[in-house]
Write a structure and sequence with these properties.
Layout: H1 2-14, H2 19-39, H3 48-57, H4 62-81, H5 108-119, H6 125-140, H7 144-148, E1 155-158, E2 161-167, E3 173-177, H8 180-194, H9 214-227, H10 238-250, H11 255-262, H12 267-270, H13 274-286
Antiparallel strand pairs: 1-2, 2-3
Length: 290
C-alpha cells in the first residue's frame, strides 16, 4: 500500500501539482490507509461500502468530506489505469450537495479604510510585500495558492503594466494582467526582492526570507483587516478575491469576462455574484414613490 501511495504522489509531482496540494493528498491518503489496515483488508479488497462508511464517519464539514472522496477517487483511478486494481470503488459514490452562500466581500467604506492602512505601510521589503499582495488579490482576483507559487521570472512588463504567468487551479498556465497602480508597487517590491541572494526564486518571502505560504498570507491579511477596523465573518484573503468579482459585477462587466478573469470552470460559480445586482435592483425599486 505504501509503495502504491508513493507512486501516486510521484505522479502528482510529475504533473506539476503544487506542494500544498500534494501535502493535502498525502495527508488524506495516510488517514485512509490507517482505516484500511483497521479493516484488515488490502487495497484491492476495499469496496464502495467501506469507502462510504469511512467518508460518512468523518467528523468534518460536507465540503471536507467531498475533498476526501475526491482524493480517494483520484488514487483509485491512478491504480486502475495502471492495472493495480480492477475497479474504482469510489467512482459511484455521490458527493454531498453543498449549500452555496453569498460571498463575503468588502464594502466601499471598508475598501477606503483598507487603502489608508496600505498607505501607512513601511516602504521596506515586508511593508511593500504586504501592500503588493493586498493590491494583487484585490485587482486581479488571484487565488492564494496561485499567488504564493509565483516566481520572479513569472513577472514581466509591457507598456500597459505587469503581466503574471500564473499556474492556475488544475495546473494550466495562464496570463494575468495587472493594472498600472498595482504595477508601480510591484516594480518597487521586485527591485528590492532581486537584491536578495537566496537559494529559491519565489517572488514573495517571509521576514526570514523563506518562500511565503498560504498560512503566512492568511495571517498577514487578517492582521491588516484588524488594523483597518474591518470585521467580517471571514477575515482571509479570499474576501479580497470576492471583492474583485463584486466590483466588476457592480460596474456592469460581462459575467463571461468575470468568469474568465476569476478562472472559474463553470458559469454557475460566477453567478454567485449576481446577488450584488439584485440588491441594486431592490434599491432602485424603493425609489419609486407611489
Amino acid at each position: 500500500m505504501e509503495r502504491m501511495m508513493k507512486l501516486f504522489i510521484k505522479n502528482l509531482l510529475r504533473k506539476n501539482y503544487s506542494q500544498a496540494t500534494i501535502r493535502e493528498y498525502e495527508r488524506e491518503l495516510k488517514r485512509f490507509m490507517i482505516y484500511i489496515r483497521e479493516l484488515d483488508k488490502n487495497i484491492e479488497e476495499v469496496d464502495r461500502f467501506d469507502i462510504e462508511e469511512y467518508i460518512f464517519d468523518l467528523n468534518t464539514a460536507d465540503r471536507t468530506r467531498n475533498r476526501t472522496l475526491s482524493v480517494i477517487r483520484s488514487f483509485y483511478k491512478f491504480l486502475q489505469d495502471r492495472e493495480y486494481v480492477k475497479n474504482n470503488p469510489a467512482r459511484l459514490i455521490d458527493f454531498a450537495k453543498i449549500r452555496t452562500k453569498n460571498p463575503v466581500f468588502l464594502s466601499d467604506e471598508e475598501l477606503s479604510k483598507l487603502r489608508k492602512v496600505l498607505d501607512s505601510e513601511q516602504d521596506d521589503l515586508l511593508g511593500l510585500r504586504n501592500k503588493v499582495i493586498i493590491k494583487l488579490l484585490l485587482s486581479t482576483g488571484l487565488r492564494v495558492s496561485e499567488l504564493v507559487n509565483l516566481k520572479i521570472d513569472d513577472v514581466s512588463f509591457d507598456e500597459s503594466g505587469a503581466i503574471l504567468e500564473v499556474r492556475r487551479k488544475g495546473q494550466e498556465m495562464d496570463y494575468v494582467y495587472v493594472n498600472k497602480k498595482t504595477t508601480q508597487s510591484l516594480s518597487e517590491y521586485l527591485e528590492l526582492r532581486k537584491k536578495l541572494s537566496l537559494l529559491h526564486d519565489y517572488l514573495f518571502v517571509t521576514k526570514n526570507y523563506n518562500p511565503l505560504d498560504r498560512t503566512n498570507v492568511y495571517r498577514m491579511v487578517k492582521n491588516i483587516f484588524s488594523k483597518a477596523g474591518i470585521e467580517k465573518k471571514k477575515m482571509g484573503p479570499h474576501v479580497l478575491r470576492h471583492t474583485f468579482a463584486t466590483i466588476l459585477m457592480k460596474n456592469n462587466v460581462s459575467i463571461y469576462k468575470i468568469k474568465r478573469l476569476m478562472n472559474h470552470k463553470q458559469l454557475t460559480t460566477t453567478e454567485r455574484y449576481l446577488h450584488v445586482v439584485e440588491n441594486d435592483l431592490r434599491k432602485t425599486v424603493e425609489k419609486i414613490d407611489i
